[in-house]
Design brief:
The chain is of the alpha/beta class and 137 residues long. The protein has a single domain, classed as HUPs (Rossmann fold, 3-Layer(aba) Sandwich). 36% of the residues lie in helices and 20% in strands. It has six helices and five strands. It has a five-stranded parallel sheet with strand order 3-2-1-4-5, sandwiched between helices. Helix 1 links the parallel strand 1 and strand 2. It is globular and about 55 Å long. It comes from Shewanella maritima.
Length: 137
């Protein structure tokens, strides 16, 4: 059995997240997703719209995901890979090279992100969204 593991905040769940999970699930038999906790996001100076529990529930409901674990700090990945017998660690190519040190215990893959969509861009768009303008267009 081949196990895949990935990590992320997965806030404002969107088509890019679904496509990532779908691609990852095709690489093996089991997909494990580490969802960043609110405390870890705070350490990264990052705020999620949805709480960890809500994001966990959303990710767990995706048919491509077999297991969700909390991501609590940067250092836990190595221990998780060993403990969960992960064969492949995969993450978006915006992290290219950042996790190469894990290649001594598993295959490390950097996947191309879905074009024209990101949670950061969605948040920025919503911040400037004017419903009145949208209705008159």
């Amino acid at each position: 059995m081949k196990t895949i593991i990935t990590y992320g905040t997965f806030d404002l769940f969107h088509i890019g997240h679904i496509r990532l999970f779908k691609r990852l699930s095709k690489l093996g038999d089991k997909l494990i997703v580490g969802v960043s906790t609110d405390e870890f996001n705070a350490m990264k100076n990052k705020a999620a719209y949805f709480s960890y529990q809500e994001r966990r529930e959303i990710v767990e409901s995706c048919k491509y995901v077999d297991m969700v674990i909390p991501e609590q700090d940067w250092q836990q990945k190595r221990g998780d890979i060993i403990r969960l017998n992960a064969d492949i660690f995969a993450i978006g190519d915006d992290w290219l090279g950042k996790f190469d040190d894990l290649s001594d215990i598993c295959q490390v893959m950097y996947l191309r992100r879905t074009q024209a969509i990101s949670t950061t861009e969605i948040k920025a768009s919503l911040a400037t969204f004017n419903p009145a303008q949208a209705l008159s267009a």
